[in-house]
């Protein structure tokens, strides 16, 4: 007879423990260690591979290549983040804070697919069908083609899939699903892992595209085992901007497209609406120019994005001046200030400095270095940078301004939005002039500060 095994797992962070203890050794939380029954000690679905098929050894050149089929949802921002549409047989995990709009977005997606005569199934394990129907009516979505099911057993769900054979499946959410191979409670580490594995194998074998809604923890990371991120093909995060007016859909992992791609939506009473021109959304500036406000061009995924960077420099009233960065790395701000002191001859040791990326955007690339320093200099000297100018470039420790990727595309996009002047790295200067755009190519910080005085 197979032997039953148990494990001790932290309900907060999911860390394993060899025995029960009062405090979790990983997250230091008290009274969170729970005994979990792992079921019979027999090979479970996770050990059979996630592809769902048995494979034989063969040369890579012998592999048959087929054109990847994609389904267009009709929501261009959603398709962009996925890499051009839904790949048949793919597993997509979408997470986000409560109220971000995960269920609303997926309901809109399958409604668009159903309108294209694509067979869909929405499985709800948390909400009743009446609640979902009321939301669909509020969003003005068609009700006669969307198939619904309330179920939490993955075995029963797959049996239903065998009957109706949909092309797209939505699981809301994976944390409430359970499988009969595990005796632990739904939401536990083993249940989430086994349920995701079971659904993945079914999706790969039958070519069903699956969207799974995932919960997040207090630190905004996806709840459940880390294995969940490895199982899925695509992992999306839906977050709101600081003012809660907009939603940003980000791809943290994508086997069928670029990682870091962003999709922008506006939330209103009719659901999530696409934002076709996100640069205009983040460039809602005041009519009167003010010191410390500059514009830079970021590169998000496969497109440029114009954002405003603001800085405020004030005299320190206490012993230790504060340096606060919102929207980019705090340590990078300290490094840029050191470069400004050494190679720009501008001292800020006795000043408090606050820098912010407007709109809640998180800057992860280094192309904004020059714009951040220009905004600090503008606020420190109380000089206004013209509204029709923008800046980008990476700063080196020796004061050099390094080129950034996709420089020509950034310049073109800024010119389309009416910008007239640009201070950029010399290596990014285009060989062919861009109509209506005056470019100041610079190779060092001192040259950039001289060019700034020319355009101000």
TrEMBL record:
<feature type="binding site">
    <location>
        <begin position="96"/>
        <end position="103"/>
    </location>
    <ligand>
        <name>ATP</name>
    </ligand>
</feature>
<keyword id="KW-0234">DNA repair</keyword>
<dbReference type="InterPro" id="IPR020568">
    <property type="entry name" value="Ribosomal_Su5_D2-typ_SF"/>
</dbReference>
<comment type="function">
    <text>DNA-dependent ATPase involved in processing of recombination intermediates, plays a role in repairing DNA breaks. Stimulates the branch migration of RecA-mediated strand transfer reactions, allowing the 3' invading strand to extend heteroduplex DNA faster. Binds ssDNA in the presence of ADP but not other nucleotides, has ATPase activity that is stimulated by ssDNA and various branched DNA structures, but inhibited by SSB. Does not have RecA's homology-searching function.</text>
</comment>
<feature type="domain" description="RecA family profile 1">
    <location>
        <begin position="67"/>
        <end position="216"/>
    </location>
</feature>
<dbReference type="Pfam" id="PF13481">
    <property type="entry name" value="AAA_25"/>
</dbReference>
<dbReference type="InterPro" id="IPR020588">
    <property type="entry name" value="RecA_ATP-bd"/>
</dbReference>
<dbReference type="GO" id="GO:0005829">
    <property type="term" value="C:cytosol"/>
</dbReference>
<comment type="function">
    <text>Plays a role in repairing double-strand DNA breaks, probably involving stabilizing or processing branched DNA or blocked replication forks.</text>
</comment>
<dbReference type="Pfam" id="PF13541">
    <property type="entry name" value="ChlI"/>
</dbReference>
<keyword id="KW-0346">Stress response</keyword>
<comment type="similarity">
    <text>Belongs to the RecA family. RadA subfamily.</text>
</comment>
<dbReference type="InterPro" id="IPR004504">
    <property type="entry name" value="DNA_repair_RadA"/>
</dbReference>
<keyword id="KW-0227">DNA damage</keyword>
<dbReference type="GO" id="GO:0005524">
    <property type="term" value="F:ATP binding"/>
</dbReference>
<dbReference type="GO" id="GO:0000725">
    <property type="term" value="P:recombinational repair"/>
</dbReference>
<keyword id="KW-0479">Metal-binding</keyword>
<keyword id="KW-0378">Hydrolase</keyword>
<feature type="short sequence motif" description="RadA KNRFG motif">
    <location>
        <begin position="253"/>
        <end position="257"/>
    </location>
</feature>
<dbReference type="InterPro" id="IPR003593">
    <property type="entry name" value="AAA+_ATPase"/>
</dbReference>
<dbReference type="GO" id="GO:0140664">
    <property type="term" value="F:ATP-dependent DNA damage sensor activity"/>
</dbReference>
<keyword id="KW-0862">Zinc</keyword>
<dbReference type="GO" id="GO:0003684">
    <property type="term" value="F:damaged DNA binding"/>
</dbReference>
<dbReference type="Pfam" id="PF18073">
    <property type="entry name" value="Zn_ribbon_LapB"/>
</dbReference>
<keyword id="KW-0863">Zinc-finger</keyword>
<feature type="region of interest" description="Lon-protease-like">
    <location>
        <begin position="352"/>
        <end position="456"/>
    </location>
</feature>
<dbReference type="InterPro" id="IPR041166">
    <property type="entry name" value="Rubredoxin_2"/>
</dbReference>
<dbReference type="InterPro" id="IPR027417">
    <property type="entry name" value="P-loop_NTPase"/>
</dbReference>
<keyword id="KW-0067">ATP-binding</keyword>
<keyword id="KW-0547">Nucleotide-binding</keyword>
<dbReference type="GO" id="GO:0008270">
    <property type="term" value="F:zinc ion binding"/>
</dbReference>
<keyword id="KW-0238">DNA-binding</keyword>
<dbReference type="InterPro" id="IPR014721">
    <property type="entry name" value="Ribsml_uS5_D2-typ_fold_subgr"/>
</dbReference>
<protein>
    <recommendedName>
        <fullName>DNA repair protein RadA</fullName>
    </recommendedName>
</protein>
<dbReference type="GO" id="GO:0016787">
    <property type="term" value="F:hydrolase activity"/>
</dbReference>
């Amino acid at each position: 007879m197979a032997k039953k095994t148990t494990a001790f797992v932290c309900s907060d962070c999911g860390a394993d423990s060899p025995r029960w203890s009062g405090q979790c050794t990983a997250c230091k939380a008290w009274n969170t260690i729970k005994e979990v029954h792992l079921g019979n000690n027999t090979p479970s679905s996770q050990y059979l591979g996630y592809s769902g098929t048995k494979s034989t050894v063969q040369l890579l050149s012998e592999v048959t290549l087929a054109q990847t089929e994609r389904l267009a949802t009709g929501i261009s921002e959603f398709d962009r983040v996925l890499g051009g549409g839904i790949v048949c047989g793919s597993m997509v995990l979408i997470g986000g804070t409560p109220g971000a709009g995960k269920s609303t977005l997926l309901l809109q997606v399958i409604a668009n697919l159903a309108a294209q005569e694509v067979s869909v199934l929405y499985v709800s394990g948390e909400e009743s069908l009446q609640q979902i129907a009321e939301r669909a009516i509020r969003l003005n979505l068609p009700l006669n083609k969307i198939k619904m099911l309330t179920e939490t057993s993955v075995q029963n769900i797959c049996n239903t899939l065998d009957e109706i054979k949909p092309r797209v499946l939505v699981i809301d959410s994976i944390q409430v699903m359970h499988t009969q191979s595990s005796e632990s409670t739904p939401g536990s580490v083993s249940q989430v892992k086994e349920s995701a594995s079971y659904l993945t194998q079914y999706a790969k074998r039958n070519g069903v595209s699956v969207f799974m809604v995932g919960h997040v923890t207090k630190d905004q990371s996806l709840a459940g085992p880390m294995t969940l991120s490895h199982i899925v093909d695509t992992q999306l995060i839906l977050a709101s901007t600081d003012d809660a007016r907009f939603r940003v859909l980000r791809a943290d992992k994508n086997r069928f497209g670029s990682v870091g791609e962003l999709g922008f939506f506006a939330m209103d009473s009719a659901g999530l609406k696409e934002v076709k021109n996100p640069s205009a959304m983040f460039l809602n500036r005041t009519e009167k120019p003010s010191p410390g406000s500059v514009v830079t061009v970021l590169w998000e995924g496969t497109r440029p994005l114009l954002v405003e960077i603001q800085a405020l420099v004030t005299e320190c009233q206490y012993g230790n001046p504060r340096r606060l960065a919102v929207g980019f790395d705090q340590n990078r701000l300290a490094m840029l200030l050191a470069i400004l002191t050494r190679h720009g001859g501008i001292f800020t040791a006795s000043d408090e400095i606050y820098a912010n990326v407007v709109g809640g955007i998180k800057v992860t690339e280094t192309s904004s270095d020059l714009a951040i320093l220009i905004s600090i200099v503008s606020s420190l000297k109380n000089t206004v940078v013209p509204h029709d100018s923008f800046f980008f470039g990476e700063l080196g420790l020796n004061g050099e301004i390094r080129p950034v990727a996709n420089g020509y595309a950034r310049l073109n996009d800024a010119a389309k939005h009416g910008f007239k002047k640009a201070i950029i790295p010399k290596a990014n200067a285009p060989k062919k002039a861009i109509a209506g755009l005056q470019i100041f190519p610079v190779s060092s910080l001192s040259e950039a500060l001289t060019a700034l005085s020319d355009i101000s």
